[in-house]
# Entry
Amino acid sequence: MKFVVNRDLFARSLSRLQGVLNRKATLPVLSNALLEARPEGTLRVAATDLDVTFDGRIPARVEAPGRITVDGKRLYDIARSLPGEEVAITVTPEQQIQLKCKNAEFVLLGQGAEAYPTLPSAEGVELTPIDGVALRELIDRTAFSASTDESRPNLNGVYFQCLGEGRVRMVSTDGHRLSQGERDARREKDIPARDGVIIPRKGVGELKRLLDEAGAEVSFGFLENNLVMATGELRLFVRLIDAAFPDYKQVIPKSTQRNVVLERGTFLGSLKRIAILASERTHGVRVELSGERMVLTSDNPDLGKAREELPLDGYTGGDMSIAFNSKYVVEILGVLAGDKVEIALNEALSPGLFREHGNPDYLFVVMPMRL
Amino acid sequence: MRLVLHADMDAFYASIEQLDDPSLRGRPVIVAGLSGRGVVSTCSYEARRFGVRSAMPTAWARRRCPQGVFLPPRFERYHAVSEIVMAVFRRFSPVIEPLSLDEAFLDLTGSEGALGPPERIGRALKDAVREATGGLNVSVGIADTKYVAKVASDFRKPDGLTIVRPEEARAFLAPLPVARLWGAGPRTVERLESLGYRTIGDVARADPARLAAELGRQGEHFHRLALNDDPRPVVPERDTKSIGYENTLERDLRGAVEIRPHLRRAADEVGRRLRRAGLRARGVRIKLKTAGFRLFTRQMRLSEATDVAEAIYAAADALLAQLELVEPVRLVGVTGYDLTEEAAAQLDLFASATPRRRALEATLDRVREKFGDAAVQRADDLDAADPPRE
# Structure
């Protein structure tokens, strides 16, 4: 096996794999990257952790085809530090990998590709073009509320659903709060409607990596229980969570009695201030609507208390008092764009609804606390 | 120097029956499940002479002791008496660690000035229990460690009082069989004996490195116990840092399918103990020991503190999935840690089954308290239940 590749392309293709390489896996070969020099003049660079697989191809001058696996982190560290423009790689029959670049030379110990797990193939998968920029925005604004509690596997990811007519939706929830976003993500042709799937948090992270690189030009499809994302010669396979996403629609308030609009920056600033004296464990802050003002308070028996008033000119929804985990609200205010935020409440123990004023694409639901 | 007292009521349930019905005194009384699959809870010392033992199937006990008086348990009564007994213990020390209805550790460190020498404290405690209950006996062991105190309370049962001074502790332990090592089940005993350790003295004299090589961390643990090196403090219930339950199995288990029912049983027990203590756990840990004595533990934090067995089991099962066990497993344990007294302030979006589930489990607690553990069981466990080995 022998080939020559461009150093930058090689390093970049290896950099993508870094989140997938698993150095603690029970199968040691999973810390390796798979290199395959193909006779048609490409180098395949791939890795899998059995749940997420990155599989890419870059142009190469292949002198002798072949397959090998090698420690993917070390190979990346070497590739990105090499001095020249081109890297020449030779694999000996003893599975030693020699890298030469200008005057630098490395020999890495490889492992035969036969021990590497079989990678999924996108061949035959119907790929539908989708707007990667819209997807990226959906992920940025919804994925943060996915649960990290592994005893609730159906919440450990982002629910992704194609609604038809090019609209796609993402939802995540940890059982205390929920984020939902919807965008028109059509590119070239329609995206047919289909049942939602749950993309695990890890896979969402790798998907973001791919979208950062790809921009708008991506396509997607499904292969058995995998989501396939493709851009150029790069394929990402993410094994989906095999569980039922909860009935999230029923927890989104249909109508609300008390609706207020606030300057996002002002509200965020005062919420963060008041949260300083909230309980360090629950982060609870009380929100009172009283006449034409909102009063934020926190009370920590060990430290002291805080209070701040915000005017609500023209508010007529009536008085009420509700408490939220301030971290949840601060996170929402952080992902919202736009200057104004709408807050819609019903009763003290009913969920609160947060939206960007004038943007129906996103909504956030937070369950209150009993303080 | 520490001073630890271990108090263990003698044949607790059977003695209560004899106390309440004087015609039973001096007769073999066996408190047991009387159904076809029932087992013996407790038997009086008269019944023990016929070879009746706790946990023996009731049918066997009837064969061994046909003249025995077989009674169904009256748990409400036993709980009431237990409260009286624990109240007596609290008069002797503010730091008491109940292990069950009829057994507790008391930390007496520094009490000698007020209560007198250990002998006097032991006598006074025994008299006070007898007086408060109207005639029940308790066996008492006093030593400078929990381990030796516990061994001592059993030493001259029934109605025993054994005081082991620190300088005598090793000599006291030395002739005892290795089965008296804390944590040594029947199979560990077999293993110790096959390695040539018959008495605790043999273990004390052993090369700790060799013990560790042969038995792993358990080997070190046994060696320390044999030398009366047991620094564990008496932990009152309210200061508990974790609540766990583990079970060494009659038969090795292979694979998740066989392990899960035992995880579930342990989770049920942890949930029950949490509820009894008024605590919730923010973390769940599982512990598995393989037939080769390798120990595996995994733990995770929950998104909210819980005392619901169902949620504890869900976490335990997710942790089990993280382990790739090749070897068979001989011990399964579940622990709830990072405990809190607060109820969850954060409400759940999916007004989930949790509150109903908690209500169900609390109801089962009350049923078991009144009618005994066997009153309600999982259908799975009925199939799995095989009679204890004799």
